[in-house]
TrEMBL record:
<dbReference type="GO" id="GO:0005524">
    <property type="term" value="F:ATP binding"/>
</dbReference>
<dbReference type="InterPro" id="IPR029047">
    <property type="entry name" value="HSP70_peptide-bd_sf"/>
</dbReference>
<protein>
    <submittedName>
        <fullName>Heat shock cognate 70 kDa protein-like</fullName>
    </submittedName>
</protein>
<dbReference type="InterPro" id="IPR018181">
    <property type="entry name" value="Heat_shock_70_CS"/>
</dbReference>
<keyword id="KW-0067">ATP-binding</keyword>
<dbReference type="InterPro" id="IPR043129">
    <property type="entry name" value="ATPase_NBD"/>
</dbReference>
<dbReference type="InterPro" id="IPR013126">
    <property type="entry name" value="Hsp_70_fam"/>
</dbReference>
<keyword id="KW-0547">Nucleotide-binding</keyword>
<dbReference type="Pfam" id="PF00012">
    <property type="entry name" value="HSP70"/>
</dbReference>
<comment type="similarity">
    <text>Belongs to the heat shock protein 70 family.</text>
</comment>
<dbReference type="GO" id="GO:0140662">
    <property type="term" value="F:ATP-dependent protein folding chaperone"/>
</dbReference>
Amino acid sequence: MAEDNHAIGIDLGTTYSCVAVWQADHVEILVNNYGHRTTRSYVTFADNKRLVGDEAFSEAGKFPANSIFDSKRLIGRRFSDATVQNDIKCWPFKVIEGPADKPLIVVNHNGEEKKFAAEDISSMVLAKMREIAESYLCSKTSVKNAVITVPSYFNDSQRQATIEAGKLAGLNVLRIINEPTAAAIAYGIDKKAGWFHKRNVMIFDWGGGTLDVSLLTIGDNVFDVKATAGDTHLGGEDLDNRMVNYCIQEFQRKHKVGIGENVKALRKAKIACENAKKVLSFSPDVTIEIDSWYRGEDFYTTFTRDMFEKLNMDIFEKCMEPVKRCLEDAKIDISKVDDVVLVGGSSRIPKVQELLMEVFKGKELCNSINPDEAVAYGAAVQAAALSGNVTGKLQDFTLLDVIPLSLGFECEERDSSKLFMNVVIPRNSKIPVRKTKSVTTKRDNQKSVDFSIYEGESSIAKNNNFLGKFSLDGIPPAPKFVPQFTVYFDMDANGVLGVSAEDTSTGQTKGIKINRGRTK
Ligand code: AMP
C-alpha cells in the first residue's frame, strides 16, 4: 500500500475511541463501518477470528471471558498496583502477573492459551482506528502519522506504553498529547479572530476511566496550559461497577442466590447498568431490566437519580479535588476563569455539573463542544500542525503545555540517612525546561554517587514512579560534604527528559535520556 501523508488524531479512550483528520481547513470526525463517530475500545477473540471495535462489543456476550476492554486502565501499570487488583475483581477476563510485575491478559483462542500485555490490546484498537481513517480517506493509501491523546495525568510508563501501542499498530506516533489540552484546542481553534483576546478556560474532562482537569489561557491561536491535575483511575466505569454491585445484592436479597464470578451474568449487568446510568442523566428514574440474568431468573428494579447520587456521592466529590488543585497550581482565582468547558461522557451527569457550578459560585458551564469528539478533534489539529500541513487557521497555532508530575531524584538528608524526593522540576512547569540542583557526598572518601530518577508528588522517592538510574564514579578522595556535583534536568519540547550530573572538581559528566513523549 502506498503511504498517505495525512496525519490523524486518535483519542484512545477507556471505553470509546475516536479518530479525526484535518482537511480543507477544518476537522472531520471519521465514521466507522457501523456509522458511529466513536468506536468501542473492545477486542473479542471469537471463533477463528479476532474482532475489534463495535463488532467486538456486539459479539462480547457470546465470548465474555475472551472480550477485552479497559486496557487503558492496565496500560503502564504494575500487576501489584492496588487499582489493578481492584479492577481484576470486576472484569470477566483473566489477568495474571507476568515478568517484572507486568499484568498480562489471558485468553483461550482456537484451543490455545494466549497472553497479551495491555499495549497489545490497545494497539489492536489503534489499528482499528487507523483502518477507519484509511477507509475514509482513500482505501489505496496507508495512514502512518498520528497524534495519540493520553490523560494529562498519565505517568511516564503509561505514556511510554501508549507510544509502544502506537508502534505495534504500525503508526508513526508524531506526538502524545494531553486529552484536556486537545479538548481546549477543539474549543478555541474555531473561534473567530477577535472573539476573545485572552480567556482563562478550564477543561473538565471526565470519561470512562479517567478524570483530567486543565486550566489554559487561550488567545490568538496560542494555547497556553497553566496547570493540570487529575486522577487516572476515576471514571464512569466506577459508577457502573457500583450499580452492578447494587444489583447483585438486590438479586441475592430477592432470590437468596449469589451471582459470584459468573462472567456472562456480570457482563449482562454491566451493559444494563451503563445504559441505565446514561438514562439517569436525563430522567429522574429508570428501570434496570436484565432478562434471564442468572439461573433463568429475570431481574427488574427501579433505580432513581437520587439513589444513583447517594451511591456515588463520594466519587462525585472526589472529582472536585483536582479542580481545586488545578486552580491553586495555576494561581488563578475562580472569578478569573472565563469558561468551564465540559468534556467526556461522564461530564453529562447532572450531580457533577451541580458540584462544579458550586465550586465556580454558580457560573454557567459550557456545553458547546461535543464531549465525545473534542479530544480527537484537537488531536487532529495538532497532527496537521506537526506534519507541516500548516495552512489557513493553523498558521499561528502554538501549544504550550506543562508537565503533570514533579521530576526529581532520590537523595539522603544531609544529617540523617532518611531518603527523600529531591524535586528538580516541579509539576506544572512549562516545557521545554532546564533546571539544576547542587549535591554533595555523605561519607568521607566516597567513590561514587547514584542518581535514581523519579516522577510524582510523594516526598518519599520510592513511592513515586521510577524512571531510571545512573552513577557518577571515580570521585577523587575528599572529606564528606566537600565534593560538589551539579544535576541537570532537561526536558525538551518533544518531551524527552535528559538527566545528567557533573562533578565540578573533575569535570566528569554522566547521564541518561528518558523519552517521555510529552507535548510540545
Ligand atoms: P469517554 O471516555 O469520554 O468516551 O466517556 C465514556 C463514559 O461516559 C462511559 O463511562 C459512559 O458510560 C459515560 N457516559 C456517556 N454518556 C453518558 C451520559 N449521558 N450520562 C452519564 N454517563 C455517560
